[in-house]
From TrEMBL:
Cross-referenced Gene3D superfamilies: 1.20.120.1760
One GO location term (cellular component): endoplasmic reticulum membrane
Top-rank taxon, per record: Eukaryota
Stored InterPro entries: CDP-OH_P_trans, CDP-OH_PTrfase_TM_dom, CDP_ALCOHOL_P_TRANSF_CS, CHOPT
Protein name: diacylglycerol cholinephosphotransferase
Membrane topology listed for this record: Multi-pass membrane protein
Compartments, as annotated in UniProt: Membrane
Top EC group: transferase
Enzyme Commission code(s) on record: 2.7.8.2
Primary site of residence: membrane
Pfam families: CDP-OH_P_transf
Keywords: Lipid biosynthesis, Lipid metabolism, Membrane, Phospholipid biosynthesis, Phospholipid metabolism, Transferase, Transmembrane, Transmembrane helix
Pathway it works in: Phospholipid metabolism; phosphatidylcholine biosynthesis; phosphatidylcholine from phosphocholine: step 2/2
Length: 459
């Protein structure tokens, strides 16, 4: 493992990446319903706006709104302002919409490249961390640190598994209940906190209405996020506030309302993980059932385990309870490491190359681990900040260098559309408008000119 290489991608990798073709199948329930909105939205985007710029603008909005929530509730226990929750819901909706139209803008302007796919997935890997963290803060999940740890790392793991099965099968697959449904469920959670306040998650449910806990869990497994969200709405309408602001447990389950989103996360996690794992275990498209790079289908589990396992050990062994006292900073630190490892997996898939197990970003978690192991005098909180700064800078350094190398190889710009592409697109759109005008004016022409206009259109 070399920390700073002059070239991260070899000439062979760049050649294979330039030949990469995007492959994706989606059975999402919401994608079909949202297509008209996305089509209308992209039609309002100016042709000079680069697709990658649309993606990064959405990511910046999502990060900014989440950081506002983190500012007011860094421990995920303090009650954040309602307007901050609403702003977070709006930021996630903006990100989701812009993320959906960047590919449409690329096809619209004739600038579709493998770099766009890589850049989109890279931004998604970072967004996943902030979206999961914001959902935990909205329901004050800091009171349940283990559940919060599971929720956030479950989101990172599922995103990694999605690209793991892509590395194995060569195609990205979305189920009926997948990313879009999860995003809108979290938007709903933010809106509920914004309208009723975070205390809504402490309301008592007099009648659960679905029987035992196991029955409810089964419903979550097979219904998905949308059904769960509708059940949440019914629950809130019939609940009541506990005495003296105390936390009320649900009858028959002994579980508080704020843990309901975690039940949903568990169910969806099992559903999505099952679909990804089934693809992985079925064998890859490479030789003898290997990955697209010809490696073992199980090899990607090693790099990600270097993220999750140390995160859990440090959390459980911390004498200063660094995670419980600073959950947001802790999740963001390890989330950036997970994003870096996921980006390397995406690069390995698109370049059909083997994925290295070790990474320079792991120095951050190693700082925390060694500080605990040798019982240094430095406070873990300060080491955590150093870890966060290191892994964040390392992620952006890696991402920037990979993008620049691809841009240099393919002779393209990252955030600009070349003038010739823009001019060609404008001419094509003008020609299309002229054809529509000719077709609209045809009934006003006599038979002789009508025949000529048909010939012109056919040509």
């Amino acid at each position: 493992m070399q920390f700073y290489k002059d070239r991260l991608l070899s000439p062979g990798q760049l050649k294979r990446l330039s030949e990469h073709k995007y492959s994706c199948t989606s059975n999402s329930l919401l994608d079909g319903l949202l297509q008209p909105w996305w089509d209308w939205l992209v039609s309002k985007v100016p042709l000079w706006l680069a697709p990658n710029l649309i993606t990064v603008l959405g990511l910046v909005v999502n990060i900014a709104t989440t950081l506002i929530l983190v500012y007011y509730s860094p421990d995920a226990r303090a009650e954040a302002p309602r307007w901050a929750c609403f702003l977070c819901a709006l930021g996630l909706f903006v990100y989701q919409s812009l993320d959906a139209i960047d590919g449409k803008q690329a096809r619209r302007t004739g600038t579709s490249t493998p770099l766009g796919e890589l850049f989109d997935h890279g931004c998604d890997s970072i967004s996943t961390v902030f979206v999961a963290l914001s959902a935990c803060i909205a329901v004050q999940l800091g009171y349940y640190p283990t559940w919060m740890f599971f929720q956030c790392f479950c989101a990172m793991t599922l995103f990694y598994c999605a690209h793991w099965q892509t590395y194995v099968s060569g195609s990205l697959r979305f189920g009926k209940v997948d990313v879009t449904e999860a995003q809108f469920t979290i938007i709903g959670i933010h809106l509920i906190s914004a309208i009723f306040g975070p205390e809504i998650w402490m309301m008592e449910i007099p009648v659960l209405g679905v029987g035992t806990f196991s029955t409810y869990m089964a419903m979550v497994f097979y219904a998905g996020y949308i059904h769960v969200f509708l059940e949440f709405c019914k629950v809130f309408e019939s609940g009541g506030i506990g005495k003296n602001g105390s936390t009320i447990a649900l009858p028959y389950t002994g579980t508080e309302v704020k843990v309901f989103p975690l039940w949903a996360a568990v169910g969806i996690a099992i559903l999505l993980a099952q679909s990804s794992i089934s693809v992985i275990l079925a064998g890859g498209v490479g030789k003898n059932g290997s990955t697209v790079a010809g490696t073992s289908v199980l090899s990607p589990i090693i790099p990600f385990s270097f993220v999750v396992v140390p995160a859990f050990i440090i959390y459980r062994k911390s004498a200063e309870h660094v995670y419980e006292n600073h959950p947001a900073l802790y999740i963001l630190s390890f989330g950036m490491v997970a994003a870096k490892v996921t980006n390397r997996l995406v690069v390995a898939h698109m370049t059909k190359n083997e994925m290295q197990y070790l990474d320079s970003s792991l120095i951050g978690p190693a700082m925390l681990f060694l500080n605990q192991y040798f019982n240094f005098f430095i406070k873990e909180y300060y080491v955590l900040w150093v870890c966060f700064i290191w892994v964040t800078l390392d992620l952006f350094r890696y991402s920037a260098q990979v993008c620049l190398e691809i841009c240099d190889h393919m002779k393209i710009k990252l955030f600009r559309i070349p003038c010739n592409n823009h001019a060609g697109t404008v001419q094509a759109n003008a020609a299309e408008r002229n054809v529509h005008m000719m077709l609209e004016e045809e009934p006003l022409l006599d038979d002789e000119y009508h025949h000529g206009s048909d010939t012109a259109v056919d040509l």
